[in-house]
Amino acid sequence: MRKKIVAGNWKMHKNAEQTEDLLNELIAQIPTETIAQVIVAPTFVNLASAVDHLEFTAIIVAAQNVHQAESGAFTGEISADMLTGIGVNTVILGHSERRAIFNETDGLIASKVNTALKHDMTVIFCFGEELKDRQSGNHFNIVENQLKDGLFHIENTAWEKVVLAYEPVWAIGTGETASPEQAQDMHEFIRETVRKAFGSDIAEDVTILYGGSVKPDNAKEIFSKPDVDGGLIGGAALNAKDFVAIITAI
Ligand code: PGA
């Protein structure tokens, strides 16, 4: 079912003590009446403690990545089984930093999607164009291809485990955000692309988040657009005041 979601991607920030401090602040400050499903994605080493810490709350813990193989000689990697074993059932895949810095291709992301779904995990599937794509007017094409090559091989029934996160690369961590109109145009296009491939029910039900420099002062306007169902937040998720203000904006 389509939900309102605000997810915080903590990237490689916050040691154990800082993780606990921020979680305590969130527990204290997120209004109980919020309609948003709140998700936090701390770094791997702090996932287990975050799950414990949030046990009696409605906040969900997500991982920032997972390896595509079940197990094996993959030094430094983390499997889906390891994540679900500690109570982490949500994973962010295809983030632009993983695509750009760690060379993750659509094909690799597709196999990670398969592994995560096989383990009954919820996938927050990230995609979005680079600045050069938007400048050349190619952004709709790029987004369509990322969806088709990374995600559209899944079964209809798997869609209930998928959240889409449109994140224009030029807006991530830059302080420059897509205008609410640009976000809405792309979200509408994304929903239409899903509709063409999987039908209206799935297209109407899928949650589509916007990510890229969402801050307390722009969140409300972006979230007010009909096809924007929430946000994936980086920098502003690292302090409770801003993150809670964004949650409240929904
Ligand atoms: P940002 O990051 O909010 O700092 O732009 C968003 C993201 O990377 O998901």
From TrEMBL:
Keywords, sorted A to Z: Cytoplasm, Gluconeogenesis, Glycolysis, Isomerase
Biochemical pathway: Carbohydrate degradation; glycolysis; D-glyceraldehyde 3-phosphate from glycerone phosphate: step 1/1; Carbohydrate biosynthesis; gluconeogenesis
Entry's family note: Belongs to the triosephosphate isomerase family.
Function according to Swiss-Prot or TrEMBL: Involved in the gluconeogenesis. Catalyzes stereospecifically the conversion of dihydroxyacetone phosphate (DHAP) to D-glyceraldehyde-3-phosphate (G3P).
Subunit record text: Homodimer.
Highest rank taxon of the organism: Bacteria
EC annotation from Swiss-Prot or TrEMBL: 5.3.1.1
Species this protein is from: Flavobacterium restrictum
SUPFAM superfamilies, A to Z: Triosephosphate isomerase (TIM) (SSF51351)
Residues noted as binding substrate in the record, renumbered to the chain: 9-11, 173, 213, 234-235
Keyword Thylakoid: no
List of catalytic residues: 95, 167
One GO term describing the cellular component: cytosol
Localization (cell): Cytoplasm
Pfam families for this protein: TIM (PF00121)
The protein's name: Triosephosphate isomerase
Catalytic class of the enzyme: isomerase
Main subcellular location of this protein, as a coarse class: cytoplasm
Catalytic activity: D-glyceraldehyde 3-phosphate = dihydroxyacetone phosphate
A GO MF label: triose-phosphate isomerase activity
InterPro entries, alphabetized: Aldolase_TIM, TIM_sf, TrioseP_Isoase_bac/euk, Triosephosphate_isomerase, Triosephosphate_isomerase_AS
Keyword Hydrolase: no
Gene Ontology terms describing biological process: gluconeogenesis; glyceraldehyde-3-phosphate biosynthetic process; glycerol catabolic process; glycolytic process
